Amino acid sequence: MSDDKTNPSLLGLDVGKLLGSFRLPTVDVGQLIETNRRNMDALIAAQRSVTDGYTSLARRQVEIFQNTMDMAQSAIKAKREAKKGGEEASGDGPSSTEIARMALNMAVQNMKDLAEAASKANGDALALINDRMKATLTELKAMREKKD
């Protein structure tokens, strides 16, 4: 009986001897926790970057919409005033074709600006994550070398 208590066995095998034959790596738990904390901080910073970028993008969209509406109202008002004053269509104000061309050019430029803003927001977040991944690999490699 006392033999069973000092030498635990599993299916007739000495578990102590079996586990003793394996070389299990030791891990610096504090350093591992610190690495994971930095990883979480990087993810939070990346999320903040994306959130800030898309907030800025939404504000820019509202600004574009307001500017477009102001321009359209000004063009409509100018046309109405020209008609009231009896001016000809070829008067001083822009023609409908010119207004449409200006609106199209403005829309294309606005789309480019919005695409660049979205790309920047995503790129900044990705850069933060990539930098942190590289740092994590370096830290894990250093932990491994320290133990060898």
Structural account:
The radius of gyration is 34 Å and the shape is rod-shaped. It contains 4 helices and 2 strands, in the order αββααα. A two-stranded antiparallel sheet has the order 1-2. It has one domain (28-147). β1 (9-10) and β2 form a beta hairpin. The model has no long low-confidence stretch (mean pLDDT 80). It is mainly α. α3 (29-84) packs antiparallel against α4.
Give the overall shape: rod-shaped
| Whole-number count of domains | 1
Instruction: Give a count of the beta strands, DSSP E runs of length 2 or more.
Output: 2
Radius of gyration: 34 Å
Counted by DSSP, the helix tally is 4
Uncertain segments: none
| Helix proportion | over 70%
Overall pLDDT score? 80
Q: N-to-C SSE series? A: HEEHHH
- Biggest pleated sheet: 2 strands, antiparallel
Distance between the termini: 41 Å
Residues in β-strands, percent: under 5%
SS class: mainly alpha
Walk across the major sheet and give the strand order: 1-2
Summarize this entry quickly.
The chain is mostly helical and 148 residues long. Helix content is 80%, strand content 3%. A two-stranded antiparallel ribbon has the order 1-2.
Short key terms for the protein model shown above:
4 helices, 148 residues, mainly alpha, two-stranded antiparallel ribbon, 3% strand
Per-chain topology:
Elements: H1 2-6, E1 9-10, E2 13-14, H2 15-20, H3 29-84, H4 96-147
Antiparallel strand pairs: 1-2
